[in-house]
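hey so u asked for the seq, here:
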Amino acid sequence: MLTTSTGCAATRRDLIRLMGVMVDLYCASYATPPAAVTLDIDDTVDVVHGRQQLSFFNAHYDERCFLPIHVYDTAVARPVAVLLRPGKTPSGKEVRDHLRRLVRRIRRHWPATHITIRGDGHYGRPQVMAWCEENGIDFVFGLPGNAVLADAVEATADDIRTRRALNHKPCLRGFAETRYQAQSWNQKRRACARIEATTRGLDIRFVVTSLETGPAEHVYETIYCARGQAENLIKLHKAQLASDRTSCRSPLANQMRLILHTAAYWLILTVRDAIPKTHVLATAEFATLRLRLLKLGSRVIETASRVRLAFAAACPDARLIRHISAGLMPAAP
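ran it, structure tokens below
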């Protein structure tokens, strides 16, 4: 049983406060409010092996699972929020409500910072896009293709397909954009297409965005494709910090587990950020850092004023550990 400092099980209110602290910690990680940030939102499968509350059978994964939502500032690899939720695709209303609470908390610290939300097609819902536009939030979301979108970019697609065939190239890529309004949308929005012709045929991917500047190629390849880094961060959180061990029956206890794993993420990220940028471990994954810097044998010597760690004379990273400890040591009062 996971408990609070009072010895009682964590309540819903405790968890709401802790999740707010996660956002506060993220904002405090910047020395000054940034001019703009891009937040990546995504969900990941968390397979369960019992009858935990909120676990649903998901036909896509063919498993009973949770689908927790992760939010990261991928430019600096920092977690913003991690939320346990049922094993089903989130609805537009659910995503809108999560983002509203998250942005409201961030605005307490950064009232003037411009925020861009980035996500795959699960998050490009009408409620989400309308809320972003009403609150001055930019967005770039994946957009499932359909016949209307395909017809809108057919001229460009045919040109790319023809030039690839005439020049006998294995692959040729191009970009196009159009204005598109689905039946459930309240207005037309900019849709950018990545069109790729290969010997196997034509592949077209779309994104919908509130950004009105920049060519379609920049919106798709530079802005949207950078979302892939969030998936790498989720792997660090889930695979290398074992945050998918949500084995408690109560969803409150499992949410507490996610918060604790996120705290562990922050600790290791802080250690990595203290490594000199020219060092080979400055961009290492968490499992490598744990193996090289944490899972070491040493002699601990405690005195009244300090704690000494005595490593073996042949410890290969002793100098780096000394540098990190000096860098993380709090300044004297």
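The radius of gyration is 23 Å. The chain has a mean pLDDT of 92.
lmk if thats what u needed
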